[in-house]
């Protein structure tokens, strides 16, 4: 009897010990943790808006519902943030980065400042907004095609963003009277610059901002970079329509498309190289659920306008690799055009 009692007591002890250990073993990875979202831009722009929108809802769909900390790291057209992310961030699933097409364009352009390779990051998912709307101040519109007039000033952060291709090919094939200045920290400063008349031309995908500038009587739309008109701006012609019969063919058009980029390559989330597969899977599944959330859809429409959409990690990864693999001849043509119009160039890859 005594042996039976001891055996029963031992069994109870084992069960209690198992029950005590089970919750710790089965606790969701993100329970009690903080997830940092690094945003590869300053505050106020499209990258920042996309990152903060996703960060607001991501904990809802991550098992364990972690706390979220958002940190902006602007500078160098996303180069500073990407270099830091590649060399300093641990692949522990606790830091992810909201990136953009600017970092891919910088990588393609090359140069000694580029210390990262976007193909090595672990893709989580992406957000693509409708195409950029190229705007001009109303008081500069008459000078756009008048070569005898003072050049119209195009403003940008680094002179290499995708929409800049429209202005360069517009100058080359339509005869736009332009000059370029760059070095603005971010979209917030560019908004102020076009409002104050410091620059005359700028592009953004932010529907709300464009409508505000129209309503204020500051600017009008020249055209949009997409190959079809935006549903929320049906009167804005596409750049293809603006080119008309002057649209180039062959290497020139191939180079334009390489610079302008694929429409899916806009804003996307990444984890560091080496992040374990099971954590990447959690992040990807949570991102997919975020994109299905009706509240996210509503908020996205408010900031981005109609037509924005989410893309899977696999899709963005394929687009990045395709964009980086553009032919050498097309890269050289882009470099030639940048040199011709006094825009920055880098070492070829």
Please render the helix and strand layout as text.
Layout (H helix, E strand, L loop, with lengths): L1 H25 L7 E6 L6 H16 L5 E6 L6 H10 L6 E6 H9 L12 E7 L4 E5 L14 E5 L7 H11 L3 E5 L4 H10 L4 E4 L2 H9 L3 E6 L14 H5 L6 H11 L6 E5 L5 H16 L1 H11 L4 E4 H12 L3 H13 L9
Helix pairs in contact: 2-10, 2-11, 9-13
Write structural notes for this entry.
Helices cover 45% and strands 17% of the residues. It has 349 residues and is of the alpha/beta class. It has two domains: 34-129 and 263-324, D-Maltodextrin-Binding Protein, domain 2; 133-261 and 328-340, Periplasmic binding protein-like II (D-Maltodextrin-Binding Protein, domain 2, 3-Layer(aba) Sandwich). The strands form three sheets. A six-stranded mixed sheet has the order 2-1-3-10-4-11, sandwiched between helices. Strands 8-5-9 form a three-stranded antiparallel sheet, with helices on one face. A two-stranded parallel sheet has the order 6-7. Strand 1 (34-39), helix 2 and strand 2 form a beta-alpha-beta unit. The radius of gyration is 24 Å and the shape is globular. The chain starts with a helix and ends in a 9-residue tail after the last helix. 43% of the residues are buried. The model has no long low-confidence stretch (mean pLDDT 90).
